[in-house]
Amino acid sequence: MGTRAWIGYQNEDDTITATYSHWNGDPNGVGVMLDQYYNTPDKAKEVANLGYISNLHEDISQTKKEAANQIEPMIFHNRYSFIRDMNDDIHIEWGYCYTRKNYWMVYEGKSNKGLLLSKVVSKLKRE
To answer: Which of 15, 52, 78, 113 is most exposed, with minimal Cβ within 10 Å?
Structure first.
């Protein structure tokens, strides 16, 4: 069974473009990959525009190659609707959003409280 996540990018108009990630969506998996390899606006936007990924790798071409499905990315009106819809979806356990201020936020399913991904990953490395 996968640990599913949404990976979003906050656009200039506040909408969120997001990709569905099927495997390893927790901070130890997708979170570490986003923090280490997708921590610029261009890279964050690229992964959010994929639409569907099976697993996130440090190399985006490998991520694309392994995708089991090809679907369009999701579009949300704003970060609030991204979080609300994530909480309403029983299958999504984690949400990540790259903000216009150029940092990743992470949300655990059924929670509206976002945490800075860099702090979460830093804590994981110390454990």
So the answer is: 113
Nearest to 90 by CA among 105, 106, 110: 110
Nearest to 30 by CA among 54, 49, 61: 54
Written in H, E and C, the secondary structure of the chain is: CCCEEEEEEECCCCCEEEEEECCCCCHHHHHHHHHHHCCCHHHHHHHHCCCEECCCCCCHHHHHHHCCCCCCCEEECCHHHHHHHHHHCCCEEEEEEECCCCCEEEEECCCCCEEEHHHHHHHHHHC
pTM > 0.90: yes
**Quick one: average pLDDT of 61-65?**
93
For residue 19, give the nearest of 115, 105, 100, 96 by alpha carbon.
96
* Residue 20, amino acid: Y
